[in-house]
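Weekly structure sync, notes
Attendees: PL (lead), two postdocs, one rotation student
Agenda item 3: pending single-chain targets
PL asked that the sequence for the first pending target be pasted directly into the notes so everyone works from the same version. It is reproduced below exactly as submitted, 188 residues in total.
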Amino acid sequence: MGRIVGIDLGTTNSLVGYTDSQTGQPKCIPGPYGSTLCPSVVSLDADGSIIVGEAARNRLLTQPERTIYSLTPLGRSELHDWMRELLARPQSEFPRFGVALSLLAVLTPAESAALLTQRLAALDAEIGEIEDTMRGAEDRGVAWIFLIEEEYRKDLVRAERDFVERLIESLNRPDYVQAWQEMFEGNV
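Predicted structure, written out during the meeting:
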């Protein structure tokens, strides 16, 4: 006769047990930290890896947006309302880079272009890292829907990268350099 396994999926903790073939008595299976109680927490890594139990609970503080621990009916309703709002209504976000762009003229065109060239390299590296993460997850069979936020992030970074590249070209144009010198040289 095969072994009987039982799983108690609780809202706070879970247990996995089996019937011992020699004694016929139930035994609980300990987790990697020795406890038979496993926190009912699941976390999803950006690369698609699934983390459960104590390790997932530890991520509640560092990556709460990727970690689920318990969902009451009221919580589920709130989650659905929140998701509907997030998906349906665009909201303006004001990143620090936008502030820097608004004050770009305080630096010389050459210094601005040099700093933006550093940013361009960092953006290229970030795009490469995102693509590597996505490729690794896809190779492990992670469905596209679980990678959608990475696809979105990649497109945002790529759009910023293209913008920065065009801005560097504009800052290096002789007509802009001359206009900047006439307006700001010695004044900023």
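Discussion points:
- The chain has a mean pLDDT of 84.
- Residues 109-139 form the longest helix (31 residues).
Action: rotation student to compare against the earlier draft before next sync.
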